[in-house]
């Protein structure tokens, strides 16, 4: 069973840093990509970073490039999102997702030329000004 569990969300001041974690099970990071997405109420879920062990690549949206870093520890089945220089505009629920899509998937998002459709429950990041 594919599972993703995010952690690390918190309340932080503007300019601060946070590291989010995504613990995965039921599949191998060696073969499937992971994306980090975020969503605020009333807006579409947007991709911020993705990583692929298979292709050896990581990609970032323009809004976080230079501030966020995605990495993974395949031995631990974990993917991380290091977020620096946080801004109140970064306030959102952050989700990790994989492109291993279950048959009962409800939400899919295309990012980094991949369709992501298996999601974690999300973790709240709040940046105060």
Overview of the structural elements:
It contains no helices and 13 strands. The protein is mainly β. The strands form 3 sheets. Strands 2, 4, 5, 6, 9, 12 and 13 form a 7-stranded mixed sheet that branches. The radius of gyration is 14 Å and the shape is globular. 34% of the residues are buried.
What structural category do the secondary elements indicate?
Answer: mainly beta
Order of helices and strands: EEEEEEEEEEEEE
Question: Distance between termini?
Answer: 40 Å
**Approximately how much helix is present in the residues?**
under 10%
- Write down the overall geometry: globular
Number of helices, counting only DSSP H or I runs of 4 residues or more: 0
Query: Which parts are unreliable, with pLDDT below 50 for 5 consecutive residues or more?
Result: none
| Percent of residues in beta strands | over 45%
Average pLDDT works out at 96
Quaternary structure? single chain
Summarize the main sheet: 7 strands, mixed
Number of strands: 13
As a whole number of angstroms, the C-alpha radius of gyration is 14 Å
Task: Summarize this structure briefly.
The chain is mostly beta strands and 129 residues long. It has strands at 3-7, 11-13, 18-25, 34-39, 46-52, 57-60, 68-73, 78-83, 92-98, 109-111, 114-116, 118-119, 123-128.
Question: Which short descriptors sum up this protein?
Answer:
single chain, about 130 residues, 7-stranded mixed sheet, 4-stranded antiparallel sheet, about 50% strand
Q: What is the element layout, followed by pairings?
A:
Blueprint (H helix, E strand, L loop, with lengths): L2 E5 L3 E3 L4 E8 L8 E6 L6 E7 L4 E4 L7 E6 L4 E6 L8 E7 L10 E3 L2 E3 L1 E2 L3 E6 L1
Parallel strand pairs: 2-13
Antiparallel strand pairs: 1-3, 3-8, 4-5, 4-9, 5-6, 7-8, 9-12, 9-13, 10-11
């Amino acid at each position: 069973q594919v599972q993703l569990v995010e952690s690390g969300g918190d309340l932080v001041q503007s300019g601060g840093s946070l590291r989010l974690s995504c613990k995965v099970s039921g599949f191998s990071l060696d073969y499937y990509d992971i994306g980090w997405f975020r969503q605020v109420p009333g807006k579409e879920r947007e991709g911020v970073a993705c990583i692929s062990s298979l292709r050896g690549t990581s990609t970032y949206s323009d809004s976080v490039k230079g501030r966020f870093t995605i990495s993974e520890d395949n031995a631990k089945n974990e993917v991380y999102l290091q977020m620096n220089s946080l801004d109140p505009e970064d306030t959102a629920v952050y989700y990790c997702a994989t492109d291993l899509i279950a048959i009962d998937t409800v939400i899919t998002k295309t990012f980094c030329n991949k369709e992501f459709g298996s999601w974690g429950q999300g973790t709240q990041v709040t940046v105060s000004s």
